């Protein structure tokens, strides 16, 4: 298990590898310029942005604040969390 402060200090590639191996995807949200996916990773959340048709990752946002889920409430599958 990684804590958020440890995770933040990792290099970008390692962050993405851990996210894809241990992260639980909760929901996707389409935007005009791409797709955002919110993941539960250990005891924090990671939001990943990318163009819809490409696998290139534009940005990741890492937070312990569960209010980030507010934008995804209609799309979250509660069963995947429990």
Give a written overview of the molecule.
This protein is 24% helix and 34% strand. The radius of gyration is 12 Å and the shape is globular. It has one domain (4-81). It is built from three helices and four strands; from the N terminus they run H-H-E-E-E-E-H. The chain is of the alpha+beta class and 82 residues long. The chain has helices at residues 4-8, 12-22, 78-81; strands at residues 24-31, 34-41, 44-50, 59-63. The mean pLDDT is 87. It has a four-stranded antiparallel β-sheet. The longest helix is centred in the first third of the chain and has 11 residues, at 12-22.
- Spatial order of the strands in the main sheet? 1-2-3-4
Mean pLDDT: 87
Q: How large is the share of residues in beta strands?
A: 25-35%
The rounded Rg comes to: 12 Å
Q: What overall form do the CA principal axes indicate?
A: globular
Q: What is the number of strand segments?
A: 4
Listing every helix as H and every strand as E from the N terminus to the C terminus, the arrangement reads: HHEEEEH
Distance between the terminal alpha carbons, to the nearest Å? 18 Å
State the helicity in percent bands.
Answer: 10-25%
Describe the sheet with the most strands.
Answer: 4 strands, antiparallel
- Low-confidence parts lasting 5 or more residues at pLDDT below 50? none
Helical segment count: 3
Could you give the topology of this structure?
Elements: H1 4-8, H2 12-22, E1 24-31, E2 34-41, E3 44-50, E4 59-63, H3 78-81
Antiparallel strand pairs: 1-2, 2-3, 3-4
